[in-house]
Amino acid sequence: MKDYKIKTYEDAKHVISEIGFLPLAPLVPHYPSLDSITSKEAWHSGSEFDPWLWRAQFPVDGAAAYGKFIKKKSVLLSGKLLPFVKAIFGSPRSLESRYRDGLVSREAYTLFTLISEEEGIDTRVLRVKAGMNEKEQKKSFDNALVELQSSMDIVVSGTKEKTNSSGEKNGWSSTSFETMNYWASSHTLELPTIAVEVAKKELQQHFESISNPESMKALQKIFKF
After folding, report:
1. How many domains does the chain have?
2. N or C end of the chain: which has fewer CB within 10 A?
């Protein structure tokens, strides 16, 4: 594995295009993460060199799918690898049919329905519309969002600034979500139905070409090839 050290957003896009799978924080031994290949001082600096700001720009540009797809951790996936990863962690069945069979929680079904009706919905708006705005409901809301990301039914589509009545920035930005199919279609990325074993073989070949034996062991456990 190459020893990546980057400074710019364009550098980061190149790394994602090259390796296909880039966690935000360290997840695989001897494998890059956005945190490990960037300067610690740049994070949360608010400058053009801030990787925390880049993370929301990748899905906006279509440079990578972004979400808590793997082990409830935030990762970036290139358009090339996305169909294979989705074949492993996603489902060819509709979310509604999986919900009817008890494979999806009621909260996740509610959120998915709302996101489908308003693609790119702000997390704050989503929580209100779902009737989950009480403090004690936050955990259920967050868990449902992670559930939908883990099954690759939704993707982070960017962030939206909180503004006051005068249109001035007021508080932290919040995440926005789209359904995976809508996001992929918006960026002309195809998500064909791929057999799981075919997907595993493709990922194995890809990671063998860029990884050392130690990182391959962890990748094998993650992607089950």
Report:
1. 2
2. N
